[in-house]
Amino acid sequence: MSLGGKNNYLEITSGQMSRIINRSQQTASKVLIDLERENLIERIKNNKKFGIKLTEEGYETLQEIYEALKKSMDNSNNKKILFKGKIVTGMGEGAYYMSLEGYKKQFREKLGYEPFPGTLNVRLEDKHYLISRKDLINQPSIHIEGFKNADRTFGWVKCYSATIIQEFDRSSNPDSNFEEIKEREVHVLLLERTHHDNSLIEVIGPHSIKEISNLKNGDNVIITIKN
Question: For strand 200-204 and strand 120-124, is the pairing parallel, antiparallel, or unpaired?
Fold first, then answer.
């Protein structure tokens, strides 16, 4: 009741109601009858109009619906974004870009570290991960400005705080020591200019992610973007 139908009766015709709920006048009348039967509203007739007011039960029901919707929206906004993929060999772009002072200086200032010279490349295969990768640009990020040097112009980079961990199939690796598998703090990059498509994710960290996590090409990993 956006017009305030908790403490006062609101005058409305079934025609007006039908336009509000975008249904026929007959359907609107039936909705009002059903709500009254369920003791969610009170109605009084005044010529061709009705006065409608929420009952206490109706107001409590409305509050419950509001809280459920609010919780759902809050959970949706705070939900972490998950990617699963396989480590693959890159084209060597990462090592070159990580060596440029125009980027390194901003990484030091905004990320708090100078990245290892190179990116870990993770190939996504499942379709829903590809869609999430495409939508990543709409998520909050740390923005690294583009710059120019004597030779060319370099585009912006968006950095997303994330974690990475190796994915294991416990059933096929019963003898593996899973206690030694550690989740590493990293950043996922989104570049304005790149030769890669949406199936590839580039990851950086202060050290070689492969070495400190004992990873190799072909290993499956889980990347979690932290909102």
Answer: antiparallel
Q: How many CB atoms sit inside 10 A of residue 187's CB? A: 24
Q: Determine the length of the chain.
A: 227
Comparing CA positions, the residue from 164, 180, 178, 7 lying closest to residue 85 is: 164
Residue 166 identity: Q
What are the structural domains of the chain? 10-78 (1.10.10.10), 81-225 (2.40.30.30)
Phi-psi region of 82 (alpha: psi -120 to 50; beta: other; left: phi over 0): beta
Query: Could you list the pLDDT tens digit for every one of the 227 residues in the chain?
Result: 445 566 778 887 778 878 888 888 888 888 888 888 988 888 887 776 778 888 888 888 888 888 888 776 665 555 678 999 999 987 777 788 888 999 999 999 999 999 998 899 999 988 889 888 888 888 899 999 999 888 889 999 999 999 999 987 655 555 555 445 789 999 999 988 877 778 899 999 999 999 999 999 999 999 999 87
d(CA 133, CA 187): 14
> Which ranges of the chain does DSSP label H, i.e. alpha helix?
14-21, 25-37, 56-78, 93-98, 101-111, 127-135, 209-213
DSSP for 154-174 reads: E--EEEEEEEEEE---TTT-T
Whose tokens are 């026929």? That residue is 24
The pTM assigned to this predicted structure is 0.63
- Encoded tokens for 151: 């030779």
Cross-strand pairs, 164: 184, 223
